[in-house]
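Thread: Modeling a multi-component assembly for a lab meeting

Hi all, long-time lurker, first post. My supervisor asked me to bring a structural picture of a complex we are working on to next week's group meeting, and I have zero experience with this. I have the sequence lines for every component (738 residues in total). Could someone generate the structure of the whole assembly? Inputs are pasted exactly as I received them:
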Amino acid sequence: MDERVREHAEVLVDWSARVETGDNVVLAVGVDAHELAVAVAERLGERGANLLATYSSGEITRAYLQAHDGEFDENPAHELALVEHADVYLSIGGGRNTSATADISSETRQAYNSARATIRDTRLGTRWVSTVHPTRSLAQQANMSYEAYQEFAYDAILRDWESLADEMARLKAELDDGSEVRLVSSGTDLTMRIDGRTAVNSAASVAYDSHNLPSGEVFTAPYATDGEVLFDVPMTIHGESVRNVRLEFDAGEVVEYDAEQGEDVIAEIIDTDDGARRLGELGIGMNRGIDRYTDNILFDEKMGETVHLALGRAYDANLPEGETGNESAVHVDLITDVSEASRLEVDGEVIQRNGQFRWEEGFDASPTQ
Amino acid sequence: MDERVREHAEVLVDWSARVETGDNVVLAVGVDAHELAVAVAERLGERGANLLATYSSGEITRAYLQAHDGEFDENPAHELALVEHADVYLSIGGGRNTSATADISSETRQAYNSARATIRDTRLGTRWVSTVHPTRSLAQQANMSYEAYQEFAYDAILRDWESLADEMARLKAELDDGSEVRLVSSGTDLTMRIDGRTAVNSAASVAYDSHNLPSGEVFTAPYATDGEVLFDVPMTIHGESVRNVRLEFDAGEVVEYDAEQGEDVIAEIIDTDDGARRLGELGIGMNRGIDRYTDNILFDEKMGETVHLALGRAYDANLPEGETGNESAVHVDLITDVSEASRLEVDGEVIQRNGQFRWEEGFDASPTQ
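Re: Modeling a multi-component assembly
Sure thing. I ran the full set together rather than chain by chain. Output:
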């Protein structure tokens, strides 16, 4: 076994999920993620945790959903009972075809997800972590060779997470003290309120309320959004290519939108429910191990010198205890590049310019623009 | 998709497991059984059942068990809750290496299985069915090409099950009316009591208390076994080749044994517990779609013109309501060929000679021997 696979498993089990003896662990294994699953099983055995592996396959989901009449039972008892009794839920993505469910209608997808809301919420109450095993289909989606993609993925995953967590704590402090964020870039001039919200130092560990591996972002839940934003990082959403999405906000809601490509997908998302017209997340990418877009949200949104915003559901971790944030059946991230001609302000003070934070070398304290 | 895969899924879901709308189904998928899993998912969607797929991998099991200290938690709550809330449990075998767990010690294997006894018993309380997807590793184990193995497997699986069930009902009637069975063949002269026991017409459907696909056997739970038996059908047990096992019984218990190959495996099994020295099953193979041994118990024991006996646990279905049969942590089948120079008697009357039942054409009513 490639030693990097074993290191990936160790980071996932120890740093990310903090697995302990006696933990009941669900390991959701993608069709092509077998090798990582074996390494994770080994680590779980060492820890004396209890392992149940489930199987995640876009082709199985598609076959099931295409054949079903669409009247889905609410929260099937066996699946609900499984997550209710799980301490840890590890999801290892990695299929053979990232477009395997591209021909499932959004109505079917939404009906299925809505019928499982309690299962989803219960799963989000465990120490859950999502990661991916670098597969050939992910390499293809990234326009990369398999070997180069493996290098890329492990650079992003096998970081010094403690050191990155320290750096991200500085940005978190700025956001926690601030009331308003302004993002200015090419095609973008957007203001958002963040007062009363708590930023998450997303250091790829449940100990930081962070549930993705790789991670490396600081995110909060904005509201009262005004202005416009251009998302210039290309993505695939629900199996469709999306490019140069432009959203215009007034008093927190999307009032206009268009896209160079994939506008129908954006329309579907925005029409899901009221919450889908509002932002649920403002995230600032800080993982410099990610040096290019690979059309995979798990990586792209964490990339250093990017900012992302999500339409839809907000995370509880950003909200005061007991307060409900933006609610929606969806949470869809869109990304903008801030490496050039951009600035991020908190209460009028520039904290990042052209991708450099003000505590970094290279930060331009007296710019011409 | 190969149309036979879809037919296999239909037999499994409709004939075998009798899946209905709203059933909570666990589908345990072997690493190489993906294609059948997709077909089963499609059928479950049509039926409006609720699908949760788990992942079965010898490599994952091995990695976990090798790393574990051997002090296993009893019946982990998440796995137990899952089977407690399942109506149907479909297991689709099919790995990449039938010897994937060959280097797990029998102590570890037994400790792991013993710790999960309640999970196992709960699973056996669902409408459970085990089948296999024909894979390259199973073809290899059978010394067959992949294509020839597929033909073989589908001949065994895609039968006219209703018609076979009718034929098997005749043998069941003989056994239910009988008190003593005698099996005579080369190296074998064995008598067993069967009075008070009920034979199962194993027609590959939960409606017949039959849980294997393919099936095609009639089995009961014998006791008070006397005499000796030679199992001349070669097998692999716990990853080891076993050939020409000879058991000698006195008053129901094994008093002597040897084997041309794999005697250590037989010794391990017999030493598991007291019940492992007694028989839990007498089965008579009646599936003539199975025309050769393929070193896979699911098929071999159902083969027409064979008889098998299992050391260990008896099935409740053979016993009067509330009565406990032979108990053991193991149930290991061994097979003998009865196509030549053999006879099976019930209370002194020959019901099968040289593989032919007395209701079949070709049965020799007045033999010289």
